[in-house]
Amino acid sequence: KVSRSHVTDSLIAEGSVIVESEISNSVIGIRSFIDRRTHIDRTVIVGADYFRWEDSDLRNRSDGPAFPGIGQETQVANAIVDRNASIGNRCIVTNTRGIQEGEGPGFYIRDGIVVVLKNAEIRDGTVI
Q: Which pTM does this prediction carry?
């Protein structure tokens, strides 16, 4: 479901929900959720094993966060977001300092590309 969004040169898998966002040059995996006013560019989002709105008692959840997907007003560029990852609201995931190799809670930077780890939770307002 793509609602009031602008998508260019991208692939979107089934079960994904994109609301009022801009996606370009990216691959959006199965059951991905991208919230309002979010910008995704040159990014691969692997997707999720479950929908974020499913009751946690009914889904077969494997150590992932309760709400996988990307929050409101977040920017993601030149990144790989692994399965079930959760990126909060108003985050910037773009390797702002141009670091070639590094790591932090829930992510690595390799060859200048940010990799958000499987089942990671990136808190609201985080800048990478």
A: 0.90
3-state secondary structure of 104: strand
Beta strand 107-110 with 92-93 is unpaired
Count of other CB atoms within 10 angstroms of residue 89: 17
Intervals of the chain under pLDDT 50: none
**CB-based contacts of 10, cutoff 8 Å, min separation 6:** 23, 24, 25, 26, 27, 28
Using an 8 Å Cβ cutoff, are 30 and 16 in contact? Answer: yes
Work out the angle at residue 64's Cα, subtended by the Cα atoms of residues 54 and 4, and round it to the nearest 5 degrees.
55
The CA distances from residue 14 to 23, 98, 124, 126, in Å, are: 16, 33, 27, 28
**Tokens describing residue 46:** 């692997």
Looking at residue 111, its amino acid is D
